[in-house]
Amino acid sequence: MTPDIAAARAALGHLDIDDNPVSVRAKSRDFFWYSPVLKARLDHLTADFVVAPRSEAEVIETLRVCHAHNVPVTVRGAGTGNYGQAMPLAGGCVLHLKHLDRVTAVHPGRVICQPGALLRDVDAACNAHGQELRMFSSTWATATIGGFIAGGSGGIGSCTWGQLRDLGNILRLRVVTMEETPRVLEFRGEELSRVSHAYGTNGVITEVEMPLAPAYDWVGLFVAVDDFDAAARLALDLANEDGILIKLASVFEAPTAQDYFQRVRPHIRDGEHLVALMIAPHAMDAFGVFLSRRPGARLIYRSDAHDWDRDPGPVFEYGWNHTTLRALKVDPAITYLQVLYPGDPYPKMAKMRALFGAEVLQHLEVIRAGGTCGFASLSLVKFTTEERLEEIVRLHEAHGCFVFNPHRYTLEEGGRQHRDEGQLSFKREADPKGLLNPGKMIGWDDPDFDYATIWHYPGMKAAE
Amino acid sequence: MTPDIAAARAALGHLDIDDNPVSVRAKSRDFFWYSPVLKARLDHLTADFVVAPRSEAEVIETLRVCHAHNVPVTVRGAGTGNYGQAMPLAGGCVLHLKHLDRVTAVHPGRVICQPGALLRDVDAACNAHGQELRMFSSTWATATIGGFIAGGSGGIGSCTWGQLRDLGNILRLRVVTMEETPRVLEFRGEELSRVSHAYGTNGVITEVEMPLAPAYDWVGLFVAVDDFDAAARLALDLANEDGILIKLASVFEAPTAQDYFQRVRPHIRDGEHLVALMIAPHAMDAFGVFLSRRPGARLIYRSDAHDWDRDPGPVFEYGWNHTTLRALKVDPAITYLQVLYPGDPYPKMAKMRALFGAEVLQHLEVIRAGGTCGFASLSLVKFTTEERLEEIVRLHEAHGCFVFNPHRYTLEEGGRQHRDEGQLSFKREADPKGLLNPGKMIGWDDPDFDYATIWHYPGMKAAE
């Protein structure tokens, strides 16, 4: 099973192939560096070469050749993931889908496109038909739809539509297997969960069909609120207003906006918490009524009518993981957690705020799950040591909070800490040699792993 | 304050006016006869004449003239309401809005139209732009949008969008007052609740602006389920699937479908309960997955692919108050209640089923309220006497159920049994003589009424 890199590279020489070490290294990186833990482990990694197929046939050819020569293949879109999803742990080939960027068809309620299409470009094509994607990541301007499906879980729009994994939020995926003779499969319904959010460990997506929502000229808003609970309740209560259509409701504990949101800072007072919203224009009157009933809240910005000297840009680029990114740019010691507060969230949030103070700042995103709106917190953490970070996680768990650890590069550790049998069994079928994105599915490499410590992929390329 | 009918009639003689007793009586009736209690009290009523204005100016003229001559004015759309909303208790003038039926403009997310436009025609105009009304009554084919707003509360679509009264579900209402010199007012935001669901007691709506949803070729479905709780859970759980877009989820306890749904009867087994659904076509794959996980449920009809000899027509014409209508056509003794089951609905429903057996059949509609899906039951009742009906209401209340009594013709008694101060204070301003739809707002006529018994409007025209 020794990879023959040179033979594979030679057999693929007629494709768009790159083996310049500098650019290969650049194309072998994603946004894993949001996590100091992942940065310490993955920073040295690079693929041996990068192939950018121009068609599904070239995807098939690449997978066939790499299979024959035992060369690992790690698929990437734009590389905006934060969990090392696209990092080639064992080197080999990075399959870059940038040329597969065509939007094929837009129908009422659905779009068909290639995986390398940018979310922004998919939306542009859908907008021409009065429609848009139900949800997207805060990296909308640069991320691909295939990367979002394979490596993401939800984002802007999840306050209304839930998560990508929910029934109906992905319609169809076309997938190529990594076998001696790769097969092309079409998945719908129950089968979709085999390959969505599987980091490309068990197939390469070559076409996607996604459901759409009506497109509106969403009004972006910032609301300053004098009390943290009141800010959180404003966001959640608004999401529960059935007649007011929203696309985003984010809450930033003070002094997140004061310290990290440069263009918001002049407009917010010390101690005020910030709520970011996207609201359909025809719901703005109703929102005005809603807001007028909350005396501690003041509207400081609306994108359709404001007098700010410097436009803050799209409001959604302050939410989800753009919050972490903005904080990181100001303070390189910042990292984050992903926390759920089951049951009544308010006492748990109060407890975490009391326990950690400025070390952990609440950053809430309203998401819908099982028909009910609640918070996901992408809490900002001032990183000191890995040991302290682990302690912060343990303290959250000790108080009944769930943590989805973003400082892990495997599917299981970043999720619910157990393997997905559907994904694993499909990997056995579709990637019998285990060459697709190796090291990302513990269930494949080490079925007896007990999750007591961070997992180490034994096949990881050593730093030079 | 004695009305001078003849003078008013003469002054309005140049308008579209009708004083033929037979047709005036027909135009003085709504669907109050769903209730045997209302039928006993309202059946004899008729207006003195009917005016059908052709413009807002003619509305103003009619109100000005009737005000001058102390003539009561009761506004009507199509008269499909079930609470006697459009019944002229004191006679006088019925203002028929059939000529004000223009759809003025359709914008992204909203429509502007006149109140007499049929819901069906508003939708047709919106469909040309890929949009449709968020919610409508089961009388969509014949009811007007003004009547829906003034006399209704929700319906098909409320499983997703909540009720008409929720912030954002009505955008703007233009209203003419009943004064010496009628004024034209525009209401938005907080002011809308003054006149929406006020039965035309404090103003005449002459233009409406409503929010829209994307239009889809909704697939109508019937699902037969072997167990009542499983049927209810299927409907509620489906509404809680955030990625599956639905417009209707209704549950009919057996033998409702067997006894009253003629075209469904051949396809459903004895004892099976029926669920009626409307699902967006691009969510049908996901619904297939959802349904496959429920072994006791079988799909017996989908509107886009079926082999039924006799097409059942639109699925929504089995839900909401069309259920009662279909039952009434088979068994004239059938009437209904409107019940909410606060908290966990399943034990309460089980208790009611055990208590009443075939006398009260559950008919559930899934509605969203405050962000949460739940059931409204428009329970079918085999009517015997008014006393027994009252006892059934009391037994519901004794077990913690809320009943909104459809056997009452006043705003307060059909609602939460207290007056709406906003509507009352606007009536003082907009209808100082109390001539608009007299007898429908207890707060105006008898502020001290204690709701211990059915209220009797002292000004009601006697039977001849």
Protein described:
The structure is a homodimer. Chain A folds into three domains: about 5-100 and about 420-445, Uridine Diphospho-n-acetylenolpyruvylglucosamine Reductase, domain 2, CATH 3.30.43.10; about 105-215, Uridine Diphospho-n-acetylenolpyruvylglucosamine Reductase, domain 3; about 220-405, FAD-linked oxidases, C-terminal domain (Vanillyl-alcohol Oxidase, Chain A, domain 3), CATH 3.40.462. In chain A, about 30% of the residues lie in helices and about 20% in strands. Chain A is built from 16 helices and 21 strands. In chain A, strand 18 (about 365-370) and strand 19 form a beta hairpin. Chain A is globular and about 70 Å long. By secondary structure, chain A is α+β, with helices and mostly antiparallel strands. The longest helix of chain A has 13 residues, at about 55-70. Chains A and B meet through strand 10 and helix 10 of A and strand 10 and helix 10 of B. Chains A, B: Pfam families: FAD_binding_4. Chains A, B: This is FAD-linked oxidase. Chains A, B: GO terms for molecular function: D-lactate dehydrogenase (cytochrome) activity; D-lactate dehydrogenase (NAD+) activity; FAD binding. Chains A, B: Keywords: FAD, Flavoprotein.
